[in-house]
Inverse folding.
């Protein structure tokens, strides 16, 4: 009992570090501009010698930063819409490409399957800084630079969703596919009627992770979109000055809302997909 108490206390303490960031953001969105400049402003202004402080609650709570963001900042809504135009097609394309590829790696047997899957694994662990130049050259050759497709297409062919979804398809019993084949189902029918329904947790898990990654992407749109009218919401905060700290807090809170809502809705599927990835052996 004592061991359980200390374990719970340690986990609660660790959770407080995460909740403190959220509390900081929420209270900052409810704090006036003058109070923010007086409390955390010195930390962002090198010429100030005064130390920064932070209060758990604002002295005079106000909705002014949120009102300013939602009513007086049209560029915020333009960049929010740009983010939607980049993220939703990208995630939909990822699922359309990754699901058949993962099914092929998991259930089909063809020459070079192991080598091709090994290439996928290598591509999955490569950071964007390594693939940035090849992506730039290909997109420039295709004439897609400074268009939404410059961000969408490289994300559609990401290797990470293939890895996640393959682990879910590995859990589909082979005997079930053999029974479907005896009933006259071909490879496509097995994929759509058996694989997709049973692999849905892994697919939704990959979609959730893909959405969060695409929503928070900074380097890709900054590299491939020179026209600021095409910039997504992830690049909005970098343009806010120290004098607009309240606006920055409110924008951070609003940017956090869609991934948080999606995570809350898809948490069950995300946990199921991660569980399948941990329990399933690699059948390669």
């Amino acid at each position: 009992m004592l061991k359980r108490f200390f374990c719970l206390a340690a986990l609660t303490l660790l959770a407080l570090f995460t909740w403190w960031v959220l509390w900081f953001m929420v209270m900052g969105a409810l704090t006036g501009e003058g109070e923010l400049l007086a409390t955390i402003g010195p930390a962002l202004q090198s010429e100030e010698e005064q130390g920064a402080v932070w209060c758990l609650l604002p002295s005079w709570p106000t909705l002014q930063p949120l009102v300013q963001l939602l009513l007086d900042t049209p560029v915020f809504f333009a960049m929010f819409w740009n983010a939607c135009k980049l993220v939703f097609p990208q995630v939909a394309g990822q699922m359309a490409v990754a699901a058949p590829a993962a099914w092929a790696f998991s259930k089909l047997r063809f020459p070079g399957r192991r080598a091709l899957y090994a290439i996928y694994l290598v591509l999955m662990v490569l950071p964007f800084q390594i693939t940035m130049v090849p992506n730039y050259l290909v997109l420039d050759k295709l004439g897609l630079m400074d268009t939404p497709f410059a961000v969408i297409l490289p994300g559609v062919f990401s290797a990470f969703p293939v890895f996640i979804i393959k682990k879910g398809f590995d859990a589909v019993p082979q005997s079930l596919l053999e029974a479907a084949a005896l009933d006259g189902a071909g490879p496509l029918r097995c994929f759509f009627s058996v694989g997709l329904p049973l692999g849905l947790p892994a697919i939704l898990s990959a979609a959730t992770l893909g959405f969060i990654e695409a929503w928070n992407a900074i380097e890709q749109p900054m590299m491939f979109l020179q026209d600021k009218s095409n910039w997504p919401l992830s690049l909005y905060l970098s343009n806010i000055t120290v004098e607009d700290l309240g606006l920055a807090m409110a924008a951070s809170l609003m940017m956090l809302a869609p991934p948080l809502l999606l995570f809350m809705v898809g948490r069950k599927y995300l946990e199921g997909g991660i569980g399948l990835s941990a329990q399933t052996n690699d059948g390669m």
